[in-house]
Amino acid sequence: MGGVASPRVGGAGLKELSWPGYRGRAGEWRLVTRLLRAAEAGRGGVLLIEGPSGMGKSRLLAEAIDAAAEHGFMIARGRADELRRLDPLAPLMSALGESARMWGLPAGVTPSNVSDLRMWLVDQLRTRLEERLVRGAMLVTLDDLQWADPLTLLALRSLVPDLASYPVVWMLARTSDDNADLNRLYDVLQQEGGSRVVLEPLGNDAISELAEDVLGGVPETGLLAQAAVAGGNPFLLVELLGGLRDEAAVELADGHARLVSERLPRLPRRVQVFARSSLDRLSPQARRLLQAAAVLGHSFSVDDLAELLEEPAGQLLTALEEALATQIVVSSDDKLAFRHHMLWQAVTDSLSPPVRRWLHLQAGEVLLKHGGSAVHAAAHFMVHARPGDERVLAGLDRAAREVLPSSPRTAADLAMRALDLTDVSDPARFDRTVTAVDALTATGQLSESAELARAGLGHAPPGQAPHLRHQLALNLLFNGRPEEALVEVESMLDQPDLSDDLRDAAQLTWFVVLIVRQDIWRGRERAEAILAARDHRGASALAGAHVLLRNVAWAEGRVADGLAHIREAARIAAGGSLGAHSVAPRLSLAICLVNVRQFKESEDVLQAVDEEIGAMGHTVQAAGAAFVRAYLRLVTGRLNDAAAEAKAGLEIADELGTHSFILIGVIVLAVVSLLRGDLPAAVHYIERYHVHATQGMAFPPAWVAWGTAVVAEAQGGPKEAMRVLRANCPDIRMWRWHLVVESNLAAWATRTALAAGDRPQARTIVSTIERLAHDNPDFPMLTRAAAHARGILHKDAAALGQAMAGFRDPWARASAAEDLGVLLAGTSGEPDHEAAIHGLDQALEGYEQMGALRDAARVRARLRRFGVRRRHWAQSSRPEAGWDSLTDTERSVATLVAQGLTNKQAGAQMFLSPHTVKYHLRQVFRKLDIGSRVELASIVAERASADGDARG
C-alpha cells in the first residue's frame, strides 16, 4: 500500500472513500470503517488480512489506527517479530503494554508447582482487556502474525470469541500461509463471523492513480510500462516511482508525467535492488551499522546495537543519523525499526552467510550477557549454531527450561534443536533428552515423546534411566497403550535402588494403569500395604493407593469406605505435592459426590478446583471441572446447563490439546441429545466417545457405561443395550461398582433386561441393588433405587410410589412416576385409570420441566391411549426467539452481564465457569438477534421498565 497522504475522517462519522496516495483499497477500507462504526455502537468485530509482503497490510493497519484514534478509540498495536517468535505472547504483550513479570504469580504459587502457565497467562490477558473495554471501544492490530509464537495464536483463538460482545475490533495481518496453526486460527475466526480479505496486486487504474499521487501528474504510457515491473505491489511501486522522481528521471509538463529518457540508467526492479542502491550511497560505517542492526531483528535498541558492534553508543550517532536520513530505518517508540520488512530482508540478504552466522551468534551472546530472558538469545542460536558449540547449547537449554511452563511447544522446538546439535557421545545428551520428552508430553505429542524416551534409555547414565522410563510409562498410558505402560512401570518398581520420590510416582502410575485395565484386585494387597506403612511413603503412593481402594470398596459394596478413600486422596493431593496431577483426585471426589447425590459438596469441590486450575495453571486438567460440572447439571435435571458446560469443556480441551475427563463431557452430550430427542446427535457423540476411548485420551469413569447403553437401546433396542452392559459388567463385582456409581442404572437396566426377555438378569440386578441398599443405610439413593427396580420387577405399586417420593434427581423421579402410571394402567382386573393418568401426568411434568422431550413424547403417547391429550408445554410456552425464549439461566446471565459484570464475575455469582457463561451469552445474543453488551443492557433496561410499569 503506498502513498503520501492520510485519510480524513472528520465530521460525524468515518468516510468510506479512497483518498490520494491510497489507491485500489476502497473495498478493504469500507470493511474497516464498517467495523469501527459497529464498535462505536458497542459491537465487536474481526478483520483477517493476508497477502504478500508489500501489498499494504501494514499501511491498512496504520490508517485504521489513525482513524480509530481520531474517534476516541483506545489503541493496542503490536506485531510479531521473526527473532522474537520464541517469546510467549510477545505481540499481545507489547500491544497492551503488559508484561507477565509485572503480574507476578498468585500468592503461594511458585514456578516449581506451576505445571503449565498457558491458561493463567491467557486469563490474565482476558482480565486486563475486559478492564479496559468497560471504558469504551478499542482497536487491536497485530501485524506479521506468520511469526507469532504458539501461545499468541492460542490466546487469540480464545480471546477473540470470548470478547466478541465487547466493543473491540481485531485486525490481524499475516504474510505467509505456511503456518498450520495460524491457518486454523484464521479458519476458526472466520467461522465465528470474522471478515477475511486477501490484498491482491493493484489494477491498472489504481496504478495510474497512485503514480499521479506520487509524481504530481498523470503518468504517460511509457512511464506506466516501466511501473509494470513492480507487479502491482504498492510498496514496490512507491519506491520505484519515488526513486525515479528523486533521481530526476521524470519530468512534468502540462499536468502529465513522463520519463526523461526511454533508457533508465538504474531501474530498481526489486526492492532489494533499491535497498542495495541505497546502501551503496551510504558511508561504510552506516552500511556496517545497518547490516548489524538487521541481525538484531526488524526493530532493535541502540544499546544492543552498540554492544554488538563493540562501540560506545555515542560513537554510532553519526552513522545512525545517516541511516535515518535514508528512511531505511525509522524511529519507533524507544527503538529503531526498519521502515518495511522487505527493506529489512534486503539488508539481511546483503550479508554473506558466514558473516550473518557470526553476527547472529554474537547477538545471542550479547542478549545472554544482559541476564534477561534466554528465549530472545535462543532465536539467534536456533538456525545458526553448529554442533557441539557448548555456549550455544547452554543457552538453548536455559531457554527451554525457562519457557516450558508458558509455551511447551516452543520448549519442545528448543529442546529438539539442542538435541540435533548434541553428539551421541556427549554426556549432556541424556539431560536434553529428558527436557525434550517433558516438553513433547506437555504438548500432547505422545508418540514422538515415547519414541524419543525409548531412544534416550539406550544412552542413559547409570542410575538416571528411571525418570525417563517413568515418563515413557505415562506417555504409553495417555496414548492408550496401558499394557506397554504396565511393563515399563513394573520394570521400574523391580529396581531396588530406586529413589523414594520416583518409586512413589511410579507406584501412583501403576495404580492408575490397573484402574484403566479394570484390574483393581491385582493392586489391592500392595495398596493396603502402602497405607499400613503410611509414615514411610510419599504423597503420590498414598494418593494412588486410596484411589485404587475406593474402586475396590465400591465393587465390594462398601460405599462409605470408598467415599472415605477418595476424600483422603483428595486431601493429600490438595497440598500440591502431585504437581500437575494434584487436581485429578479432587475431580474424582466431585464425581463420587454426584454418584451418591451429595450435590452441594460436589459443587463446593468444583469451585475450589476451578480456582486452583486458574491460579496454578494445571492445564492438563483445565477442562476437567467443566466436564464434571456438566455431569452434575445432568443429574440435577438442568439439561441446557449440562450441555453448555460439556461444550465449554470440549472447547478448552481442543484449544489446549488436553483430554483428561473428556469422556464424561462427550457422554453427557450424548445423553442430553437423546433426552432432547436428537438421536443422530446422540449417535455422533457416542462415535466420538469410542474414538477418544480407543486413543486412550482419558480414563473412562464407570458412569459412562450407562450413557453408552442408553444410546445403544435407542439405536438398537433392549438386546443391544444389554450386550453393552454385559461387556462393562461381566461379574457381580462390576455390577455392584456400576450400581453405586449410577444408582438410576438399577431401574433402567431391570426394565431393559425384562424387555430383552432376560428375566434372570433382571433378578440379578434387583438382588444386587437391594443388597447394596441393605448394607449402606446411610446412602438413601440406594434405597430409592432398590425400591424402583423392585417395583418394576415385581410390579409393586407401593415400591414405585416410595421411590417416586424420595428421589432427589428429577429424571429418576419422573421415571418412577411413569413406571407407576404404566403399572396402574395395566393392572389385572379393573385398572385404576385415574391413578394411572395422575402418575403419567406427574412424569410428563417432570420430563418437560427438564427438557427431556423424547421421554415427554413417550408419556404423551401413553396418555393418548386413555383419550387424554396434553399440549406440548415446553414447545408452546417458549418461542424460538425474543426475551421469552431465554431459559432461566440465560436470563440470569443476561441480567448480570447487562449490569456490567464480566463473564468471570457473572460466573462467580452463578457458580458457573467463565466458559459456560460465554456459551450462555452466545445463546442469548442469538435468540435476541444482537451482538453487543450495549444492546443487551438496553433490552434488559427496557424489560425492567416494562415490568415496573406492569407492577404499578
Protein described:
This protein has 952 residues and is mainly alpha-helical. Helix content is 64%, strand content 5%. A hairpin with a 2-residue loop joins strand 10 (329-332) and strand 11. Helix 28 packs antiparallel against helix 29, helix 31 (639-656) crosses helix 47 (914-928) and helix 45 (888-898) crosses helix 47 (914-928). The two termini are 62 Å apart. Mean pLDDT is 84; it is low at 1-12, 16-21 and 264-272.
Descriptive key words:
globular; disordered N terminus; 11 strands; Arc Repressor Mutant, subunit A; mainly alpha; 64% helix; 952 residues; Rossmann fold; 3-stranded mixed β-sheet; 48 helices; 5-stranded parallel β-sheet
Describe the secondary structure blueprint for this structure.
Elements: H1 26-40, E1 45-50, H2 57-70, E2 74-79, H3 90-96, H4 100-103, H5 118-133, E3 138-143, H6 150-162, E4 168-174, H7 180-191, E5 195-198, H8 204-215, E6 218-219, H9 221-227, H10 234-246, E7 250-253, E8 256-259, H11 271-280, H12 284-296, E9 299-300, H13 302-309, H14 317-325, E10 329-332, E11 335-338, H15 341-349, H16 353-369, H17 374-384, H18 390-403, H19 408-420, H20 429-442, H21 446-457, H22 465-478, H23 482-493, H24 500-516, H25 520-532, H26 539-555, H27 559-573, H28 584-595, H29 599-616, H30 624-635, H31 639-656, H32 662-675, H33 679-695, H34 703-716, H35 718-728, H36 732-741, H37 744-755, H38 759-775, H39 780-794, H40 797-806, H41 810-825, H42 833-850, H43 853-864, H44 873-876, H45 888-898, H46 903-910, H47 914-928, H48 933-951
Parallel strand pairs: 1-4, 1-5, 2-3, 3-4, 6-8
Antiparallel strand pairs: 7-8, 9-11, 10-11
Helix pairs in contact: 5-6, 6-7, 8-10, 11-15, 12-13, 12-14, 12-15, 16-17, 17-18, 18-19, 19-20, 20-21, 20-22, 21-22, 22-23, 22-24, 23-24, 24-25, 24-26, 25-26, 26-27, 26-36, 27-28, 28-29, 28-30, 29-30, 30-31, 30-32, 31-32, 31-47, 32-33, 32-34, 33-34, 34-35, 35-37, 36-38, 37-38, 37-39, 38-39, 39-40, ...
